[in-house]
Design a protein that fits this description.
It is a single chain. The strands form nine sheets. The chain has an eight-stranded parallel beta barrel with strand order 12-13-16-17-20-21-22-23. Strands 26-27-28-33-30-31 form a six-stranded antiparallel sheet, covered by helices on one side. The longest helix is centred in the C-terminal third of the chain and has 20 residues. By secondary structure, it is of the alpha+beta class. It is built from 15 helices and 33 strands. Helix content is 20%, strand content 20%. The chain folds into three domains: 139 residues, Immunoglobulin-like (Sandwich); 352 residues, TIM Barrel (Alpha-Beta Barrel); 119 residues, Immunoglobulin-like (Sandwich).
Length: 705
């Protein structure tokens, strides 16, 4: 193909930094890392990205970066790359200049991928499989990159900087959250602008949460196999552009729309946390397409097996990014800093984060990526949350990340679900109520390091945890083989929807039990968006491909919905009101001679401190957790800084007579929450009096004169 290069004479050397396309008001500098390429062509397209108008060789190669400065380029310029080099898969090289490639540092994308055999670097169906070489041009099927003007007036916007001990995370999906919201104009539904709508922001703030954690919004690819089944990659864990917001979430196709959303959420005191996927890319294994990294420098960007042809697949997604390479590590940290400094986000949740801490020898708590984040003045100042597992050897690392990191704690989820269905022991439950100190209390880490959750995007919703024993993923088209079969759920007697009033009442109470445990435990609670409304996925525990009402939040309200929302608000109010529920140090049960109390005392149904025989009793499913506010609630030795609280948990299916602990003379116990009677007025009990703890319920009491 012969293309004009009329403006190629005007290109100058430019600079090897910053990487990507950078407009300076006069033109744009283009810089692309590739250690093994022999030549790089910058391809320019019309505004819609449909017609290639010119190819220009980048004139200079410095420190393994190809670069050039184009004075004619300005914001809106649409571009891509063609990279020349050896096509030697068995040596790790898969260069093919017939394939248009996305800039890894692109700040905006134009169009979407249209799957075609031309998108593959090898010829599909050829005898040599991925060793073959395909000569078809992929440009007309590919999305393109766009040069941006980053200017934005933030005005008075300020980051809320919510302390970790006050943080309550709300996990949500940009599209699913607003697709059915009646106050959001149809043209804005499913977009960043929709999430900025006043009624939406007011609702989130009104729940008492402090941070919105968004499922992946960086540009991702729809899997061909899903499109063939009439489905889509709804969750977005298939990233191809680490710097660009996905165009499908933008009503205006402008970068400013994302920034405006952040500004609106910040104005309401809400932080923005992004779920990010730096463990793999959308290019898959050796049989995957050539879209960006593979064609730019496959041997540098990916962890390859010793034979160099095949990929290490610790992610289960076909490939693994090679963060041991300094330029790949730079790309990831540059991306994170961009989202903090330019887009003003407040933190990140890292998908399969164990991958990021892997070196060639395996998981390393002192690995390059973790060290980079810890010493970086930008990244060390925001919230960093790890999903602490992957599919590789030694991949389960809950509690294994270094200081400064918080971690998703699936032990909390499984134990709390198990306890309320009657299967998890009280000893395990006690550990989870205390921010899993058995896992996290080391190296000066704090209780907030345990991100507690009972539900998340991956798995059952809260409604379905109490409504289904089995997964029902038939709509995913995988014969119900996908998704976990170990859900620790209990349908309360009937699988799925029922009109039985007794079962409906029990399910409502179990939901309150799970929510109360989540929001009254030590650690950082994370609430799944829609759980407070009783959202159901009809038993689907892996709705990654369901971009439809199965995943979208239903905004219709009834008395049951209103009651559950009010209960969640009550819980967040209690958490804010009582610092003992969000303590700065781990509860240990150790005696403090300064104030002559223990920070936590475990109480049996007789009102006495529990002994080892109590903990060993497998049939014991009712106990109390007495948290003494005088015991260094903030880590500072002083008296009377916080209230004392008693939490009584009863997972038995019968009422249990629980003797309330004795205290100072003249004091009595006041009930401030009871999941069995959420609307009941406060009740008062004498010290030592028997408290009739309802079947399957949680009660919270405080002493008063």
């Amino acid at each position: 193909m012969s293309l004009p290069a009329a403006n190629s004479t005007s290109i100058s050397e430019g600079l090897p930094y910053p990487l990507g396309a950078t407009w300076d008001g006069l033109g744009a500098n283009f810089a692309l890392f590739s250690a093994n390429a022999t030549n790089v062509e910058l391809c320019l397209f019309d505004a819609r990205g449909e017609r290639e108008e010119a190819r220009i060789e980048l004139p200079e190669f410095t420190d393994e970066v190809w670069h050039g400065y184009l004075p004619d380029a300005r914001p809106g310029t649409v571009y891509g790359y063609r990279v020349h080099g050896p096509y030697e898969p068995e040596a790790g090289h898969r260069f093919n200049p017939n394939k248009l490639l996305l800039d890894p540092y692109a700040k905006a994308h134009v169009g979407s991928l249209r799957w075609d055999d031309a998108c593959y670097g090898y010829t599909i169906g050829a005898a040599g499989k991925d060793l073959s070489f395909d000569t078809r041009d992929s440009a007309r099927f590919m999305p393109k990159c766009r040069v941006i003007d980053p200017a934005f007036t933030w005005g008075r916007e300020q980051a809320p900087r919510v302390p970790w001990d006050r943080t309550i995370i709300y996990e949500a999906h940009v599209r699913g959250f607003t697709m059915r919201h009646p106050a959001v104009p149809e043209a804005l539904r499913g977009s960043f602008a929709g999430l900025s709508t006043k009624e939406v922001v007011d609702y989130i703030r009104g729940l008492g949460v402090t941070a919105v954690e968004l499922l992946p919004i960086q540009t991702f690819i729809n899997d061909a196999v899903l499109l063939d089944r009439g489905l889509t990659n709804y969750w977005g864990y298939n990233t191809i552009g680490f710097f660009a917001p996905d165009p499908r979430y933008s009503a205006t196709r402008q970068i400013a729309e994302f920034k405006e959303m952040v500004a609106h959420l910040h104005d309401a005191g809400l932080e923005v946390i992004l779920d990010v996927v730096y463990n793999h890319t959308a290019e898959g294994n050796e049989r995957g397409p050539t879209l960006s990294f593979r064609g730019i420098d496959n041997a540098s960007y990916y962890r390859l097996a010793p034979d160099r042809r095949f990929y290490i697949n610790d992610t289960g997604c076909g490939n693994t990014l090679n963060l041991s390479h300094p330029r790949v590590l730079q790309m990831v940290t540059d991306s994170l800093r961009y989202w903090v400094q330019e887009m003003h986000v407040d933190g990140f949740r890292f998908d399969l984060a164990t991958i990021l801490a892997r070196e060639p020898h395996g998981f390393d708590e002192g690995g390059g990526f973790l060290d980079s984040c810890r010493q970086d003045p930008v990244l060390s100042s925001v919230k960093l949350i790890a999903e602490p597992w992957d599919l590789g050897p030694g991949g389960y690392q809950v509690g294994g990340f270094p200081p400064g990191w918080a971690e998703w704690n699936d032990r909390f989820r499984d134990t709390v679900r198990g306890f309320w269905k009657g299967s998890a022991p009280a000893s395990e439950m006690a550990a989870r109520l205390c921010a899993s100190s058995d896992l996290f209390n080391r190296r000066g880490r704090k209780p907030w390091a345990s991100v507690n959750f009972v539900t998340a995007h991956d798995g059952f919703t809260l409604n379905d945890v109490v409504g289904y024993n089995e997964k029902h993923n038939e709509a995913n088209g995988e014969n119900n083989q996908d998704g976990s079969s170990h859900n620790h759920s209990w349908n309360c007697g009937v699988e799925g929807p029922t009109d039985d009033p007794a079962i409906k009442t029990l399910r409502a109470q179990q939901k309150r039990n799970l929510l109360a445990t989540l929001l009254l435990s030590q650690g950082t609670p994370m609430l799944l968006a829609g759980d407070e409304r009783g959202r159901t996925q009809r038993g689907n525990n892996n709705a990654y491909c369901q971009d439809n009402p199965v995943s979208w939040i239903d905004w219709e309200t009834n008395t049951h919905t209103e009651a559950l929302i009010a209960f969640v608000r009550r819980l967040t109010e209690l958490r804010a009101q009582y610092p003992i529920l969000r303590r700065g140090r781990f509860l240990t049960g150790d005696y403090d001679p300064v104030v002559s109390v223990k920070d936590v005392t475990w109480v049996n149904v007789s009102g006495e401190e529990m002994q080892q025989s109590d903990w060993r009793d497998g049939s014991m499913h009712c106990f109390g957790m007495l948290m003494n506010g005088r015991a260094q609630a903030t880590g500072i030795r002083r008296r009377g800084t916080d209230a004392t609280l008693l939490m009584v948990l009863n997972a038995h299916h019968d009422i249990v007579s629980f003797s309330l602990p004795h205290g100072a003379r003249g004091w009595q116990w006041k009930s401030i929450l009871d999941t069995a009677a959420p609307d009941a007025r406060e009740q008062h009990y004498q010290m030592g009096q028997v408290f009739e703890c309802s079947a399957r319920s949680l009660a919270l009491l405080a002493p008063e004169r």
